[in-house]
């Protein structure tokens, strides 16, 4: 039998979800059956799977030591390859993600990714000890496509993760992208549409009928560069391919975005898109971050394209 005392990183989650994280190699059906059969209890009492754990609750697991070890054994993909940190405090770290790097690992085949690099960094600093934590793992609150560079918000504890995720859901944290777009955009575009996904083609389309998920995007021109426009894109919502589909609606596309009919690529093997600014807001326990703005310079390859276009003006 093993007893777990719930700490501040583990509280405020359902019993079944906590157990799924702790016994990460066990099937969900086994966990549900064990709760039902009282092989997993809380404070020595039978509990429902949906019971919300409180700090200092005692979770008892009536498995053999060998079984618990088998179900909790961590697959070690973490390498000593640390990310570049833009800003850091005791609750969060803002991580630089270059183009070509995954945010999270594809579960089918392991590949180098920003999250494992961040976890490795936390372990190296002694701020995350996997054998001590029951269910929490340092995580990102946002995701960037493989070929998009920018800022990832990494959370070091469960409270920060919950609070920032909630602020993002309430649309109180601003995420700004910089993109080079074909053609002219002369004034601000504030678009509200509905997004539908074609899973076979891995593309999305927009409509104004109310079919699909609502998306909101603000596009502001920053600089006219011949037949191109450098724009600031504020993602009020954050859906897959939202930026690319919104630009297509206005007969515009990101340079190098072949999937959505982008034109000249300047030798790029991906679209000219960079998440360059995060502005925090709506935070309570992390209120010291409210109003703070963090920016990240784009990579040299993208900057060089802008320099060439400015010469041609």
TrEMBL record:
<dbReference type="InterPro" id="IPR036986">
    <property type="entry name" value="S4_RNA-bd_sf"/>
</dbReference>
<dbReference type="InterPro" id="IPR050188">
    <property type="entry name" value="RluA_PseudoU_synthase"/>
</dbReference>
<comment type="similarity">
    <text>Belongs to the pseudouridine synthase RluA family.</text>
</comment>
<comment type="function">
    <text>Responsible for synthesis of pseudouridine from uracil.</text>
</comment>
<dbReference type="Pfam" id="PF00849">
    <property type="entry name" value="PseudoU_synth_2"/>
</dbReference>
<protein>
    <recommendedName>
        <fullName>Pseudouridine synthase</fullName>
        <ecNumber>5.4.99.-</ecNumber>
    </recommendedName>
</protein>
<dbReference type="InterPro" id="IPR020103">
    <property type="entry name" value="PsdUridine_synth_cat_dom_sf"/>
</dbReference>
<dbReference type="InterPro" id="IPR006224">
    <property type="entry name" value="PsdUridine_synth_RluA-like_CS"/>
</dbReference>
<feature type="active site">
    <location>
        <position position="145"/>
    </location>
</feature>
<dbReference type="GO" id="GO:0003723">
    <property type="term" value="F:RNA binding"/>
</dbReference>
<dbReference type="InterPro" id="IPR006225">
    <property type="entry name" value="PsdUridine_synth_RluC/D"/>
</dbReference>
<dbReference type="GO" id="GO:0000455">
    <property type="term" value="P:enzyme-directed rRNA pseudouridine synthesis"/>
</dbReference>
<feature type="domain" description="RNA-binding S4">
    <location>
        <begin position="13"/>
        <end position="73"/>
    </location>
</feature>
<keyword id="KW-0413">Isomerase</keyword>
<dbReference type="InterPro" id="IPR006145">
    <property type="entry name" value="PsdUridine_synth_RsuA/RluA"/>
</dbReference>
<dbReference type="InterPro" id="IPR002942">
    <property type="entry name" value="S4_RNA-bd"/>
</dbReference>
<dbReference type="GO" id="GO:0120159">
    <property type="term" value="F:rRNA pseudouridine synthase activity"/>
</dbReference>
<keyword id="KW-0694">RNA-binding</keyword>
